[in-house]
């Protein structure tokens, strides 16, 4: 494990400024209800505008419509979008992971079919991993794909599928051969599935505050053509693990409460903050500075061709706990009975953080699973 | 790609090898019992390490501040019981900046400046009375450097330690933190350049502790990983238990966080005043030390609570360093004022730009 300090180059600082100018123009403070991190609103028009700047599918090659930029460039854009509370929900999954998976494991035909429209900000993707009986023990998935003429017939149920009711496509981990004793990672494959396929049913699972993100997706004899298998049959587990590495340790794992903190300062303008709140600001900004430096160094490491899976798991585990700590410390000190319907944007955001942030240490792999991944990797250290 | 460790790898290798040879469990234990570690210091001084970053013209060893901080990181990593920071980037820095000659022996400093002393000035001469508290290794020092603010100017008084009465005291790690009594000490008032204020000295002291702490937390985390992978209970290494993995991961995170903070602050201090970075790094290191000592002790069980096992060399130093040159309250308050003054729109630019964003 080694996090090497790094800093942004002149060109990277120019990109940062460009994104800040864009946001100031498109979403001036006070003009929009900030989103809280990656669970952002879907706003296709906003995604299309970002794509025009070349900021969706940034790391994909130009021949497929991408910008062939580095992981650090993508870090800069994502960081600025999230700290601004921008509505990046429509292109989020495609930009962060699906594009990479199709580029890496997909066929030439799949790349041609999907990558340019991902980079234009058009396509929204859902991810199909968990099932009613498979959560953290992901290898136990049982939704089956059975070979038929020209394709596959799918039966089973996926659960906790964010955005399936609004997205276009579904990347699913399915069982293509029966579970073998002693090798539960074998026999899984990844599929690209049209969410409008006949026999595919999407039903909402209301979130605890009544909002609609999650769905249950049921497959009843759904036909998927052969050309929609991603990568090699039976290699789904390996592909899926690779995909997970793209979604760990980035700014989405430590920036979710930022808009709330910023809004507190905005609304407190002209009044004297209590010294304990001021001290808390000092502490939080210091921690953000430290965690950001770690997260940025992971992006830099990725650009040197490394796969820093231990480092990114450590950052994700720490970052998501920090997000909860920020809100807990604030709630502890603020003498306010905040309400989700308040006239104060700060109160509305804070209420939303309190209610939804328990999910931050669960989504995309619980912190317990991350600890197991990271602590295995720590073993190689000298002592 | 901008890689910014900026440290001469020879410095890392040589210092690491030196401490591996001369600074083992037994010698650290002996140093605590005897109140000094002459052999370790001699080996360290023979390499010229104490005076890195001080120009050769002033009698130093040359090299950059980054090299000096890397040596301090390794002092912390090996829990070396020596006044490396005091002789070099604190005391040596004060003396050389005031145009004073460096002695060949140990230099120490009054960590809290001139808090409990009275100073009378007559032209270029000072008369000092009072006492200095928690002065590292004063009992073995040749020179005690005292930064003094008088008439809007900062001076250094280089006091011959043999002229003072010294009462031995220790910190929680058993390292010397003596009380020094000054009685009508006459000394030359050597002026410092105007930017080297008492505040600048305080930040420099904090930076030295951050480097030491980063090294100690990293070693503590590594000890914990190795101990829990060797220790078998219920038929398997305790590191296989999810409840123990939590401690391993938290220790490793704090090691990474403190080292990143130390190196980022060092990089900035090597080219500017780095006020934001040093304050943030000290606060991060303080809190990381608190969390990591807790996690690492818990993972070690009773073994970590014994004198025979080396964890305490690190944890007790961390508990002491956490409070030296500013505890959590001092730095969160300093940072809080700075942060709040940026207002909402300046908040994120401060996180990404640090001191440079303050203009």
Give your account of this protein's structure.
- The complex is a heterodimer of chains A (383) and B (359).
- The longest helix of chain A has 29 residues, at 275-303.
- Chain A folds into three domains: 10-123, Orthogonal Bundle (Butyryl-Coa Dehydrogenase, subunit A, domain 1), CATH 1.10.540; 126-234, Butyryl-CoA Dehydrogenase, subunit A, domain 2; 248-378, Butyryl-CoA Dehydrogenase, subunit A, domain 3, CATH 1.20.140.10.
- In chain A, strand 2 (144-148) and strand 3 (151-158) form a beta hairpin.
- The mean pLDDT of chain A is 94.
- Chain A has eleven helices and eight strands.
- Chain A is of the alpha+beta class and 383 residues long.
- Chain A starts with 9 loop residues before the first helix and ends in a 5-residue tail after the last helix.
- The radius of gyration of chain A is 21 Å and the shape is globular.
- Chain B folds into two domains: 9-191, Butyryl-CoA Dehydrogenase, subunit A, domain 2 (Beta Barrel); 198-358, Butyryl-CoA Dehydrogenase, subunit A, domain 3.
- Chain B contains eleven helices and ten strands.
- Chain B has helices at 9-22, 25-34, 38-46, 65-77, 84-97, 198-230, 242-269, 275-300, 311-323, 328-341, 343-353; strands at residues 107-109, 117-122, 125-136, 143-150, 153-160, 165-167, 177-188, 190-191, 232-233, 236-237.
- In chain B, strand 9 and strand 10 (236-237) form a beta hairpin.
- The longest helix of chain B has 33 residues, at 198-230.
- The mean pLDDT of chain B is 95.
- Chains A and B meet through helix 7, helix 8, helix 9 and helix 11 of A and helix 6, helix 7, helix 8, helix 10 and helix 11 of B.
